[in-house]
Fold:
Amino acid sequence: MKKLLFTILKIAIFFFGWAVLAGLINFQIEDPVLWRFFAELIPLLVMAAFTAVFLLIEKRKIKIPVMQNIGRGALAGSLSGVVWIGAAAGILVLTKQLTVTAKNDIPMLWLWILSAFINVIMQELLVRGYIYQLLKTRYNLWAAVIITTLLFTLMHGGALAAGVIPVINVITMCLFTTALYESEKTLAAPVMAHAIWNITGALFLGGVNLAEDYPHILTMQASANTVLSGGEYKIEASIVTLIINIILMIVFFIRYRMQIKHKG
Structure:
């Protein structure tokens, strides 16, 4: 019981301490793209600082595989991300569940992309960094997966109001990227897959929701079949995405199990 209470206390201090401190750092910038950049950068820097402090407190008993297998992991994550968003968007466009209705110009697109990438690093470090490794080390893999999947789902609160399929999509997305993380043994893998999904799906296709101020090059309209098209939430609320999430989750879980069997 004492071990459980200490673990809960550490997680609470880490999460709420990060959230409060990141929220207290305020700045006034009129340029929307610069404002968004710093709005993403500050939480990441605070997250990195909290992670470093808590890892020191643990006296190196907990390690986060950031640089380990980074090249191979980044490649696996990138390929997975391309297949992931490519299959989902491709099927929906080819079946005319999503139709392109307009094309927009985005000044300083590179900085919007960088901001979205920074946001992904922060999310992955929060979900699969210290908290994940603490639970995995103190308890087991399944405890880490269940708790961090719940945390990831709560972070995407908009899905809770969007319906059942969007919520299940968030959950299966997290399970897929966790399986990818465990199979490649590096944070680089889920970072790259998640980044390609967010950047391509949101900034280029306009079919994935980020913060409201993020622009998108294409404007898409969903068909009346909301189960297939995703309706207002498009790609991330489609049952097509759910099926792809499950397939990718199974593929990387099998890869992970094969690695365990090979080592045994």
Q: What stands out?
A: The longest strand covers residues 98-103. The first helix runs from residue 2 to 24. The two ends are 32 Å apart (CA to CA). The beta strands are 98-103, 218-222.
